[in-house]
Specification:
- The chain has eleven helices and two strands, in the order ααααβααααβααα.
- A two-stranded antiparallel sheet has the order 1-2.
- The protein is globular.
Length: 300
C-alpha cells in the first residue's frame, strides 16, 4: 500500500504538470477548433526565459523570492508576446481556409521555434536551478511528495478555478463562449472575434510560461526539445478528458499521470510513453469525444 501511495502521488504531480500545458491546448481549440502544436514550444521558451533572466538577476545579488517573481512575470510577458505574434502571423491569415492549412502551419511554427532555440542556446541539457521554496513542515512526508510537487499541484488548481470563473462570469469570458459557439453570429452582435482569439492565445501562452518555470524547476534541467515531448503528452491529456473542456483537460491530465506512474511502477518504465496512447485509444473507442467532452452536431 505504501508503494502504491508513492506512485499515486507521483502520478498526481505528473498530472499537474501535464494539466498546465493541456489547459492552453483546450482553450485555443475550444475557441477556434485549432490544435496549436506550437504550444509546447511556447512552454519551452518560457522555461528558457526564466533560466536566462534568473541567472542575470542572481548575478546582481537579488534575493531568491524576487528572482522567482521577476523571472515568472517576464517569462509570462515574453511567452505571451510569442503566442500573440504566432496567432497573428501564422494562424489569422488562414482563418476560413481548410483546417489542414492551419494544422500544417502550426507544425511549421513548432519546428521553427525548436530550431530557433537550438541555434540560440545548445542541443545539450542545461541545469535549471530550483527557484521554489522548501516547506519544512513537509519534510516528514518528502518520500511521498516534495514541496515542488505540492506547489505545482496548488498552482494547477488555482489556474483551473481562475479560468472557470473567467469564462463563466466575465465579459471576455462571455465573448469567448459566443465565439466558440458561432464565430460569425458573434461578429454580427458586435464581438471583436480577432481580439477574443488574441486574448485566448495570450492566456494560453501565459499558462505555458508558468508551466515551463515550474516544471523545469521540478526536473532540474531544460533543453530545446522538451516542449515537443510535453506538448504531445498534454495534447493526449486534453483529448482524453474532452478537448475544449477545462475540467476535462485537468481530469485527462491526472488520468494520464496516474496511468504512467502506476504503469512504470508495476510493469516497466520502458513503456512509459506507450501507456499514454493505449489509454487514449481505449477511451476514444468507448467515448470518442473524451470523458467530459460533448458531442458536437454539425448542420449540413
Amino acid at each position: 500500500m505504501e508503494y502504491f501511495l508513492k506512485l499515486f502521488l507521483s502520478g498526481t504531480a505528473k498530472g499537474s504538470i501535464y494539466a498546465l500545458i493541456a489547459l492552453g491546448y483546450t482553450m485555443v481549440y475550444g475557441i477556434i477548433q485549432l490544435i496549436n502544436f506550437a504550444h509546447g514550444e511556447i512552454y519551452m521558451i518560457g522555461g528558457f526565459t526564466a533560466l536566462i533572466l534568473g541567472g542575470f538577476f542572481f548575478s546582481n545579488g537579488m534575493p531568491v523570492w524576487l528572482v522567482l517573481l521577476f523571472s515568472v512575470l517576464l517569462s509570462i510577458i515574453y511567452a505571451s508576446a510569442f503566442g500573440y505574434t504566432i496567432e497573428k502571423i501564422a494562424y489569422r491569415p488562414l482563418r476560413g481556409k481548410p483546417r489542414l492549412s492551419a494544422l500544417i502551419s502550426a507544425i511549421g511554427v513548432s519546428i521553427v521555434l525548436q530550431n530557433f532555440v537550438l541555434l540560440a542556446q545548445t542541443e545539450k541539457f542545461m541545469p535549471f536551478p530550483s527557484y521554489l521554496p522548501e516547506f519544512s513542515w513537509l519534510q516528514p512526508y518528502k518520500e511521498y511528495i516534495n514541496s515542488t510537487q505540492l506547489i505545482i499541484l496548488g498552482v494547477t488548481a488555482i489556474i483551473m478555478v481562475f479560468l472557470t470563473l473567467l469564462i463563466k462570469f466575465t465579459r471576455i469570458g462571455k465573448a469567448m463562449r459566443a465565439t466558440a459557439q458561432d464565430m460569425h453570429m458573434a461578429q454580427l452582435v458586435g464581438v471583436d472575434v480577432n481580439q477574443v482569439i488574441s486574448v485566448t492565445f495570450i492566456i494560453g501562452s501565459s499558462l505555458a510560461a508558468i508551466g515551463g518555470v515550474l516544471i523545469c524547476s521540478y526536473m532540474g534541467q531544460i533543453n530545446y526539445y522538451i516542449g515537443f515531448v510535453a506538448g504531445i503528452k498534454a495534447f493526449v491529456a486534453a483529448v482524453l478528458g474532452g478537448i475544449g473542456s477545462i475540467p476535462g483537460a485537468v481530469l485527462g491530465s491526472f488520468i494520464l499521470g496516474w496511468t504512467e506512474s502506476l504503469g512504470t511502477g508495476y510493469i516497466s518504465s520502458d513503456y512509459e510513453d506507450a501507456f499514454a496512447f493505449v489509454i487514449l485509444i481505449v477511451i476514444l473507442l468507448i467515448k470518442p469525444d473524451g470523458i467530459l467532452g460533448r458531442t458536437q452536431r454539425q448542420k449540413v
